[in-house]
C-alpha cells in the first residue's frame, strides 16, 4: 500500500479493508477525497507497517472531531506490527500542547461487539507489536476485546492514551508488555462505563514492565476534558484540583523543582448514577504503582459514581520531570 488512495481501492462498499496491508510509504488519510475523510475503515486482517505511519483525516462533525475513529479493528486474531498511528503531525521542534489534540479524533478503535436481543458478537482479539500511537484526543479506544500491546508507545493524548470502555456483556482484557505510556491530560489508561453493568463485565488490565510518564501539576490535574459538554468540565476539574491540593489528599502529591505533581497513570471510573466499575489490575506492585485515594467531593461525585486512581506515590521510579525514552 503506497498512498491514501489505496485505502479506497482496497475497501468494500461497507468500508471494510479486504486484505492484509503492507505499508510501503506513510499514508495520509487527509489526502482522501473530502467525502471519504469521515469514513471509519473496518479491519479484520493484519497490518505490516515497516515503520511507516498512518495519519488520521481531520474530521469536522460536532462529535466526530472528538470521537471519530480512523481504523476500527474487528477481527478475531489480528496482528499489527511496526506501525505508527498518528492523529496529527507536528514538527520535531514544536512545543507539545495536549489541548491542541482535542479535535484529532481516535486513530485506532478496537472492538465491534454490540449487544442485541439475540446474541453478543464475539470479542475482537488482536496483538500490536512495536507500534506507536500519538497526538490524538484518545490514541486508542477499546471495548469488548482482548488486546496485547508489546513494546508499544502511547504518547500525547488530549484525554487518555488508552480508553477502555466497560460494557454489558463481554468484558475486555488488555495486556501491556515492555511499553511506554506518556503525556495525557486525564490518564494514561482510562477504564470507564456509563451504564449499570454486572461484575462479570468488569475488565482486566495486565501491566508487565510498562512505564507511565503521566504526572500532572496539581493545579492542572483533570478528570475530564472538553468533548462538546459546554463548560461543565471546567467546573469538575477546578473542584478536583481543589480536593487534591488540600487536607489528607495532599499526601498523594510529589514535589519536584518547587511544584507539586499528581500521578494519573490509570483511572477507573463510572459516570452512571448507581453504577459500579472495578477493573482487575494485575502487576501494580511489580511496576511501582498503587491505588491513590482521592476524597469524594459533592460536585465530582455528581458526575462520577466511581473514581479510583492508580499511580506512583513518589518519584523513586519515575520523576515528574523525567522524559520518556523511545524511538519512533
Description of the molecule:
The protein has 328 residues and is mainly beta. The chain has helices spanning 4-10, 64-67, 232-244, 298-303, and strands at 16-17, 21-22, 27-28, 41-43, 47-48, 53-55, 69-73, 76-81, 84-86, 106-110, 124-129, 132-136, 140-143, 145-150, 153-157, 160-165, 173-177, 180-184, 187-193, 204-208, 211-213, 215-217, 254-256, 259-263, 266-270, 280-282, 290-292, 306-311. The strands form 4 sheets. The protein has a 10-stranded mixed sheet. It has an 8-stranded parallel sheet with strand order 2-5-8-11-14-17-20-26, with no helix packed on it. A hairpin with a 2-residue loop joins strand 23 and strand 24. The radius of gyration is 19 Å and the shape is globular. The relative contact order is 0.11.
Observed structural traits:
328 residues; mainly beta; eight-stranded parallel sheet; 4 helices; 28 strands; 36% strand; globular
Proportion of strand residues = 35-45%
- Spatial extent as radius of gyration: 19 Å
Secondary structural class? mainly beta
The total count of helices amounts to: 4
The beta-strand count equals: 28
User: Can you give the mean pLDDT?
Assistant: 88
Identify the overall geometry: globular
Amino acid at each position: 500500500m503506497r498512498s491514501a488512495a489505496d485505502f479506497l481501492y482496497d475497501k468494500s462498499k461497507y468500508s471494510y479493508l479486504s486484505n492484509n496491508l503492507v505499508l510501503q510509504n506513510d499514508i495520509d488519510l487527509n489526502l482522501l477525497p473530502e467525502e471519504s475523510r469521515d469514513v471509519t475503515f473496518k479491519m479484520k486482517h493484519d497490518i505490516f507497517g515497516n515503520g511507516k505511519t498512518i495519519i488520521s483525516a481531520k474530521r469536522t462533525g460536532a462529535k466526530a472531531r472528538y470521537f471519530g475513529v480512523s481504523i476500527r479493528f474487528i477481527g478475531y486474531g489480528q496482528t499489527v506490527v511496526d506501525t505508527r498511528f498518528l492523529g496529527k503531525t507536528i514538527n520535531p521542534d514544536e512545543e507539545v500542547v495536549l489541548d491542541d489534540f482535542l479535535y484529532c479524533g481516535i486513530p485506532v478503535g478496537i472492538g465491534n461487539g454490540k449487544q442485541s436481543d439475540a446474541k453478543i458478537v464475539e470479542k475482537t482479539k488482536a496483538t500490536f507489536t512495536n507500534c506507536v500511537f500519538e497526538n490524538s484526543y484518545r490514541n486508542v479506544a477499546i471495548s469488548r476485546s482482548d488486546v496485547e500491546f508489546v513494546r508499544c508507545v502511547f504518547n500525547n493524548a488530549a484525554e487518555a492514551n488508552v480508553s477502555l470502555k466497560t460494557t454489558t456483556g463481554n468484558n475486555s482484557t488488555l495486556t501491556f508488555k515492555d511499553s511506554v505510556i506518556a503525556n495525557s491530560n486525564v490518564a494514561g489508561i482510562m477504564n470507564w462505563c456509563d451504564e449499570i453493568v454486572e461484575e462479570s463485565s468488569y475488565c482486566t488490565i495486565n501491566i508487565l514492565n510498562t512505564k507511565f510518564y503521566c504526572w500532572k501539576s496539581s493545579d492542572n490535574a483533570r478528570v475530564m476534558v472538553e468533548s462538546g459538554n459546554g463548560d461543565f468540565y471546567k467546573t469538575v476539574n477546578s473542584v478536583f484540583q481543589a480536593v487534591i491540593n488540600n487536607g489528607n489528599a495532599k499526601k498523594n502529591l510529589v514535589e519536584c523543582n518547587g511544584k507539586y505533581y499528581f500521578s494519573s497513570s490509570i483511572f477507573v471510573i463510572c459516570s452512571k448514577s448507581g453504577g459500579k466499575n472495578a477493573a482487575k489490575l494485575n502487576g501494580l506492585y511489580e511496576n511501582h504503582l498503587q491505588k491513590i485515594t482521592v476524597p469524594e467531593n459533592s460536585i465530582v461525585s455528581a458526575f462520577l459514581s466511581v473514581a479510583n486512581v492508580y499511580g506512583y506515590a513518589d518519584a523513586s521510579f519515575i520523576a515528574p520531570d523525567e522524559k520518556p525514552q523511545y524511538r519512533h
